[in-house]
Design brief:
heterodimer, A: alpha/beta, Rossmann fold, five-stranded mixed β-sheet, 5 strands, B: mainly alpha, 77% helix
C-alpha cells in the first residue's frame, strides 16, 4: 500500500522486539512489548486489515500489558524505601550510598526480582506505612537499619547478602515486620 | 494498592467514552470495521479502567459467569435460528440478524475477559 511507511514500521517492529528481549528490567520489557503490539497494529492497517488491527491494539496493547504488569507486581516487584537521614552531604558519603544502593539493586536483579528504589524522607514513624513498602532501608551515619514487610521468602538471602557486602564501618541490623493481613501487627 | 490521583481522574473521565466506543464497534461491526469480539474486548478494557479507579472493589463474579453462559446459549440458539431461516422460515433478515449476533458475541466476550481479569487480580496471589 504505502511502501516507505511499511518499511519504517517493519524496522520499528524488529528494533522493539530486540529491545524487549534485551532489556534488563522486566517492567520495561512489558512496556516495550505493548509498544511492539501498537506498531504491529499499525502494520496490520497498512495491509488493509483494520479488523485485526483493532483486535491487536486492544488485546496486545491494553489487556496483555496490564496483565503482565499486574503479574510482575504480584510476584516480583520489591518496593524499597531508602530513607536518607540528615548527615553531612559530603561527596564521599554520597558516593558510598550510591555504591550501596547500586550493588543492592544488582543483587535483587540477579535473584530475578524487580527492585523499585524510592529515595524518601519519612518524618514520623515509618513502621506505620508498612503496607507501602517491602523493604525500608534507613542509612544513618553509624548503621544501616533494614525493615522488611511481606517478603518472608526472600529474607534469608537478603541477610546473607548483607553479611557479606556491608560497608566496613557500619553496623547492619535487620527487622522483620509482621504481615499486614495477619492478626498481629507488631514488630517481631 | 497505592492510588494515583492524576491517573484515577483521567480514567474516570475516559471511562464512558471507552464504553461508547466499544458499543459503537459492536453495533457497526456488521457493515464497517470491527465486530463483536473487538467491541467486547474494548468494553472489557473499560472494566479494567474501573479496576484502576477502585482497586479494592470486587465485582460479583457469579452474575458474570451466569451471564456468560446464558449468552453462549443464546448464541447457539441464534445459530440454530439461522439454520431454520435457510430452510424457509424467515423471522428476521439481513442486517438485523448480523447486529443481533454481534451484540451477543460482544456481551459474551466482555463477560469472559472481565472474569479472566478480575479472577487474576483478586484471587491469584503469592
Amino acid at each position: 500500500m504505502n511502501a516507505p511507511l511499511e518499511i519504517l514500521l517493519m524496522i520499528c517492529l524488529i528494533a522493539l522486539a530486540f529491545i524487549t528481549v534485551q532489556t534488563q528490567k522486566l517492567r520495561r520489557s512489558a512496556i516495550y512489548l505493548g509498544a511492539f503490539s501498537l506498531i504491529c497494529s499499525f502494520t496490520y492497517l497498512t495491509y488493509n486489515a483494520p479488523d485485526v488491527a483493532i483486535a491487536e491494539a486492544v488485546i496486545g496493547c491494553t489487556l496483555s500489558t496490564i496483565l503482565l504488569l499486574i503479574a510482575l507486581k504480584k510476584y516480583h516487584v520489591i518496593t524499597i524505601f531508602y530513607v536518607e537521614t540528615e548527615l553531612g552531604e559530603s561527596a564521599a558519603v554520597k558516593k558510598e550510598r550510591k555504591v550501596f544502593t547500586t550493588s543492592f539493586e544488582h543483587f535483587m536483579m540477579e535473584k530475578g526480582f524487580e527492585p523499585q528504589m524510592i529515595p524518601t524522607h519519612i518524618e514520623e514513624n515509618p513502621l506505620g506505612h508498612n503496607d507501602c513498602f517491602n523493604l525500608l532501608i534507613e542509612h544513618t551515619q553509624e548503621e544501616i537499619i533494614i525493615y522488611s514487610s511481606g517478603i518472608r521468602y526472600l529474607e534469608p538471602e537478603i541477610k546473607e547478602y548483607l553479611e557479606s557486602h556491608k560497608p566496613e564501618h557500619l553496623d547492619v541490623s535487620f527487622f522483620m515486620l509482621a504481615e499486614q493481613s495477619g492478626d498481629d501487627n507488631e514488630e517481631q | 494498592m497505592s492510588r494515583n490521583t492524576i491517573v484515577q481522574t483521567t480514567a474516570k473521565i475516559l471511562l464512558p467514552f471507552i464504553i461508547m466506543f466499544g458499543a459503537y464497534v459492536v453495533i457497526n461491526g456488521a457493515d464497517s470495521v470491527g465486530g463483536g469480539f473487538q467491541g467486547g474486548a474494548v468494553i472489557s478494557a473499560a472494566f479494567i479502567v474501573r479496576w484502576i479507579i477502585k482497586p479494592d472493589q470486587d465485582i460479583d463474579m457469579r452474575y458474570m459467569k451466569t451471564a456468560e453462559r446464558i449468552f453462549l446459549l443464546a448464541l447457539v440458539l441464534m445459530g440454530m435460528l439461522f439454520i431454520g431461516q435457510s430452510m424457509g422460515m424467515r423471522y428476521i433478515t439481513g442486517r438485523v440478524w448480523m447486529v443481533c449476533i454481534n451484540v451477543l458475541i460482544g456481551v459474551k466476550v466482555t463477560c469472559g475477559l472481565t472474569i479472566i481479569f478480575y479472577r487474576f487480580v483478586f484471587f491469584e496471589s503469592r
